[in-house]
Amino acid sequence: MRFIDIGINLTDPMFRGEYRGKKAHQDDFELVLERAKKAGVEKLIITGTNLADSKEAIEMTKQSGHGKRNWTITGKGGFLYSTVGCHPTRCGEFEQHPDGGPQGYLDCLRSLIQNHSSSVVAIGECGLDYDRLEFCDKATQQKYFKVQFQLAKETHLPMFLHNRNTGGDFYTMIQEHRDQFTHGVVHSFTGPMDEMEQLVALGLYIGINGCSLKTQENLNVVKAIPRDRLMIETDGPWCDIRPTHASFAHLANVPQEEMQLYAPISKKKERFEMGSTVKNRCEPCSIGSVLHVVASVRNEDPQTLAETVWENTCNVFFNH
Fold it and tell me: Which amino acid positions bind a divalent metal cation 1, per UniProt (predicted)?
C-alpha cells in the first residue's frame, strides 16, 4: 500500500531527540524518514504552524539530503512538502510581528508561498481552537483566521484546517468564506457525527489520525465519512494509537510483517537505541495502522481503501 501523510510535524524537536528543551537522545531524523519510506509513505506534508515553523518546513523540503539519503523534492514528484500558515493558538504573532505588524506578518507568509510554489501545497494550519484560549483569545483567532482565507483565494491553494470545541463558530466562518478557497481538509477530526456531516456538506475533507480513533463514538463517525471525503494522517509526534483506545483492537488481524513496518520495536526515550522508535513518539511510518483501523471499522478492503485515500489526497494537494 502507498500513503501520503497529510499532517506531520517534522519540525518538532522530538524528531531530533529533544523533549521540552532537553536533549534526551541522538538525532534520528534520517531513520524516521527511512522507516516512513519502508512503510509505504511516498509523500509527507510538513505542517507549518506559524511563520517561523513554515520557514523551517520549507527549508526541510529544500535540503540536499540527510546522511547518505537524498530526500530533496523534485517538483510535484518528490517526498517532502509543506503547508504555510498560522495555527489559531499562534495568531497573536500577527500583532507582535516586529516588521510591519499584522500586514507584515501576512506579507511574509505570502512571500514564502510565492517563492516556494513547488513545495508549498496548502494554506495552514489555520482555524479556531477554543480548548487553548490561554494562548490566544477568540477574537484574535477569528480575525487572523479570516485573513488566511485571502491567502487561499490569491494562491488557489487548498486549506489545512484546525477546529477544536468552537461551538459552531468554525462552521460559520467556513460557510461565510467557502467561495474563497477550492478545497479544504479538517485535520485530526474528533468531532461528533453532526459536525462531520455539516463540514462534508460544505465540500470539505476529513483527516483521520490516532486521536480521531480513541472512542467508540469516534469510530462510528469514521465509519460514516463518505469515501470521497476521507484522508489519513499521523500528526506525529502526537496522536499515536494506544492500547487504551477503541481503535487498538482493530489492529489484531493486521499481518505481523506489516505491523513491524507500522509499529517497529520502541523504547522509552531514556533507554533510546539508534534504530528503534521512541515509545509514544508517533512517526509517519504508523500511518498504515491508521489505514487498517479505518478499513476495519468500515469493513472495507485495506488495499482498495488506501488507493481511494491516495486519490482523494492527490486531487486536493497535488493536482492544482
Answer: 125, 235
